[in-house]
Design goal:
By secondary structure, the chain is of the alpha+beta class. The chain has helices at about 5, 25-40, and strands at about 50-60, 60-70, 80-85, 85, 90-95, 100-105. The chain contains 2 helices and 6 strands, in the order ααββββββ.
């Protein structure tokens, strides 16, 4: 088991790069699957390759999954949740039954 998995203090999330292994607990994996289905339903034209996905820990019985669009080559960040590669979407998944609690587009 890694030190990160057993640490009792908060760690800043970092993107996985290259061939680095990623550890994620089963509850978050289930929530991610539910959220991904909602993402595909709400934005069928979107390409997941153009997104970074952030899976937050459980809070108030829900897991928040944010689909954040990447910036295209040379694109500058702007206010709001849209880039030329897509629109931001957040899905909250209830962990008691793994249903979608709510969905919101970034503004």
């Amino acid at each position: 088991m890694s030190i990160l998995a057993t640490a009792s203090f908060m760690q800043e999330a970092a993107p996985a790069e290259g061939n680095a292994a990623v550890e994620i607990d089963g509850e978050r994996v289930r929530a991610l699957g539910v959220a991904y289905d909602a993402y595909r339903e709400k934005m069928p034209e979107a390409k997941i390759e153009n997104y970074t996905v952030k899976v937050n820990g459980k809070q108030d019985g829900k897991i928040e999954v944010a689909f954040v669009p990447k910036l295209a080559q040379g694109e500058q960040p702007t206010l709001g949740g849209r880039t030329s590669l897509g629109r931001g979407l957040t899905v909250w998944v209830a962990v008691d039954d793994f249903s979608v609690d709510r969905v919101a587009f970034a503004r």
